[in-house]
Amino acid sequence: MAVMAEHTSQMSVDEFETIASAAPETVTLEFIDGRIGVKKVTDGDHDTIVSWLTKRCIQARPDLDVYHGRGLRVAAYRQGRAKPDAVLAPEAHFAAHGEWADPEGSLMVVEVTSYDSDTDRRDRCEKPMAYGQCGIPLYLLIDRDACTVTVHSGPDRQIGGYRNARTAKFGEKVLLPEPMGIELDTEVLKNYVR
Q1: Domains of the chain
Q2: Residue ranges of the Putative restriction endonuclease domain (predicted)?
Q3: pTM listed for this prediction
């Protein structure tokens, strides 16, 4: 039986929120798995992908709102803080919430990979674990490095992550299962990679 090393947090959530509130607009700070992470400002292709997805989702589901950079309390016992590239939730769902909202009621979170050294750990490992543990039904990862779209579904609140992950190459059609119920034609995404 393997013994897991005890993981200690870099700081408390309150300390992180104080630091994050004073961060310059050139970066976004997140606190996942007890560690502070820095996301640099996105590039135009990244923003275009998020805009493209927003339009498709709102056209298919006008009953939803798409929140960009919405702070969510994530991970075990809500001791983490993440700012996904997009969160889809029922209309006005986050009204009257502060900077860091409970993710309950979110239908899907979206991350578009950035060209930085933390992308693998952050977007492909830590975030699916945190979002699944929160019970967010879907996690959509648009991976510009691999030119793929991965739909994570079946969140596992006990151990984190998702029970299902379906990956498609840019150019293929991708089904976002319920609660979204949308099909995306990802051909256009080929235009927004290096």
Answers
A1: 42-192 (3.90.1570.10)
A2: 14-186
A3: 0.80
